[in-house]
Design goal:
CATH superfamily of the largest domain in chain A: Stage V sporulation protein AD
Radius of gyration of chain A: 18 Å
CATH architecture of the largest domain in chain A: 3-Layer(aba) Sandwich
Shape of chain A: globular
Oligomer: homodimer
Structural class of chain A: alpha/beta
CATH topology of the largest domain in chain A: Peroxisomal Thiolase, Chain A, domain 1
CATH class of the largest domain in chain A: Alpha Beta
Number of strands of chain A: 16
Mean pLDDT of chain A: 97
Low-confidence stretches of chain A: none
Helix content of chain A: 25-40%
Chain lengths: ~350, ~350
Amino acid sequence: MSKKRVGKQTLRLQNPPCIAYSASVGGKMEADGPLAGSFDFLSADSYFGAKSWESAESAMLKKCFDLVLDKAGLTAEDIQFIFTGDLLNQCVGSEYAVRESGVPLFGLFGACATMSESLALAAMTLDGGFAETVCAMTASHYCSAERQFRLPLAYGGQRTPTAQWTATAAGALIITNAGEGPYITHVTPGKIVDAGIRDAANMGSAMAPAALETICAHLADTGRAPDYYDRIVTGDLGLVGHRILLELALGQGYDLGPVSADCGMLLFDRETQDVHAGGSGCGCSASVLVGHFLPKLKNGELKRLLFCATGALMSPTTAMQGESVLGICHAVAIENTKDPV
Amino acid sequence: MSKKRVGKQTLRLQNPPCIAYSASVGGKMEADGPLAGSFDFLSADSYFGAKSWESAESAMLKKCFDLVLDKAGLTAEDIQFIFTGDLLNQCVGSEYAVRESGVPLFGLFGACATMSESLALAAMTLDGGFAETVCAMTASHYCSAERQFRLPLAYGGQRTPTAQWTATAAGALIITNAGEGPYITHVTPGKIVDAGIRDAANMGSAMAPAALETICAHLADTGRAPDYYDRIVTGDLGLVGHRILLELALGQGYDLGPVSADCGMLLFDRETQDVHAGGSGCGCSASVLVGHFLPKLKNGELKRLLFCATGALMSPTTAMQGESVLGICHAVAIENTKDPV
C-alpha cells in the first residue's frame, strides 16, 4: 500500500502544501454579521455590478480570485490549475467567473462541501508533483440559490425553522508547494451518506451523519483524538445539524463538543439576523475558513484545525421525486507544521 | 519546475496508470446504432427499471459500475476513490448512482468533458501515490437531458440542424497502478475557451475552439506531431464542431484529418438515425472510448490515442440571459507503453 495512505480513507501528504494566500468576499448580510471584519471585500450591492444574480455570483468569485492574486503579487498566468465549483446548475457561477483567466480548470461539484473537496484535490495535485501553485475557490449567492433551489425571492415564501441562509460569499486560496504555512497535512475524502432525510429544508440533518462518518474515519485512520485539534470545523451544519453531529459523535465515543465549531453558526448572528438554523452555501465555509480561521492559524492562536466542509447532494427535481437528500463531507487537516506527530 | 510538468499545460505521469477494466451501457438509440455490438449491456427500457428519467440515469450508471466491478472481479470496497459527474443539475445522476457504494467520492462537473476530466484526476491520484485502484465514470440520458436543458419531450419541439442527440449511455473505467495497459501517459487539463457562441443548440461550434486549444497545447508541450497518434479522438463535437476543429487546426499548421475521430460522429448513424449533427452527452465519449477504442488499444490495432472529451459549459439560465456557451476540453494520452518517446 502507498505510504501516503493512512488507514482506510485518509491520505497523508508527503510534502504538505502550504496555504500561502487567501481572500474572501461577502455581501450585505455578511457585512451585518459578526465576522464582517474578517472579509477582504464586502459589497452592499447584491448584484456586484452585474445584471443578474447568477452573473453576480460569478462577478463576486472573480473579484475574490483577483483579490487573492493581488495579495499574492501573482497574475493568473502564475496559477497552474484552478479547482472550483458552486451550487448553481451546471456550476455556471464558477465557470463564468474564470472564463477569461486562461487557467486550466478542474470543475467540481461537491455542493457546500466544495471548499474542502477543492482543497483536497489541490493539495493532492501539489503533493503529487503536478504543480507548484494552484488555486482552490468557491462561492455561493443567496439570491441565485434561493430562486434555483426554493422559490422566487419576490414570492416571499416563509422559511421553516430548520432552514439555513445561503451565504453570499466567496473564498479563494492559493496553495503552493513552498511557503511558511499553514500546511495541509492530511486529506480524508468523504463517502456519500444517505440518512433518509426527505425534507430539502433540513440540510443540517442530512449532512450531520456524513460529517460524523468522515470525522470518525479521519480520527480512526490517524489515531488522533478529537482534542488533537484546536478546532474541528464543520462546513455549514447550522444549529440543527451541529447538535445532531455532537450527539451522534458521543454515541461513537467521541466528545467533539470542546473543539467543535461550525461555519454555519459563526457567519451570522442568529439573535439579530433572520437566518433560522444558520448559514449555508459553498461560500459559507469558504469565507469563514479564509477570514476567521486562517488568520488564527497564521498568528499561532490555533495550531491544528480539521476543516470539514459538508454538502447536501440533491436537486429540486430529486426532492420533488421524493428522493432523500444525500450528505457528503470531505476533511482537510491544516496544521502549523509540515511534520505533525 | 516539477519533472512531471511538460511545457505549459501538460503533465507527464511518472508511473503511467493502467486502464485495467472498463464497461459501457447504452439505451435503445445506441442499440440501433453502428456501435451496438460494443456495449456490455443495452437496455430497451429507457427507464432502466426506475420511475423517472433522472433515476433511470442513476440506475444506468450504477449498472455500469456494477458491470465493471464484475469484469474486474472486484467489489466496491476494493475501489479507493470514484471520480464522477454528469450533466444533471447538481450532478444527481452520478451521486445517486453511487450512494450505496461506500466509496469516497470526488464529484466533478465538466459537462460532456467529464470522462477525460475524471480520467485525468484518476491518473494523477494514482501517479501521485494516493491510491492503487480507482474508478472514473460518467453517464448521460437523452430524456433527462432533453427536458432539463431544452423542452419537455412530450412537446415534440423541432430540433435545429446543428443540434446533437444526447446519448443514453454510461462508461466506467477502473484505473490501477499495475497492469498490462493500456496506460495513461500524459494529461493536458483544459482551459475555458469562450468563442462567443450564443446558440445553445450549437454546442459543436462552442466546443471546437476548446478542443483546438487543448490539442494544440498538448502537441506543443510534448513536441509530438498529430500523426504520433493513431487517433486523436474528440468527445462529441459532432459533424458541425468536428468540421470547425479540422479547419481551425489547419490554420494552426496541424492537419488532424488523417488521425481525427469524433465520438459524436461514431455513436449513431446519421443516415438512418435522426440525430442531426451527431451524438453528445457525457455518456457519448465515455461509451465510445470504452466500447470502441479501448478494445482496439488492448488488441494492438491502435497503439496511441489522444482522448479529448469536450464540454459545453452553460445552463438554461445563462443561455436565457444571453451568455455565450463556454467550451472546455481535457486531453488524456492513452498508449500501449509506459515509456513512450
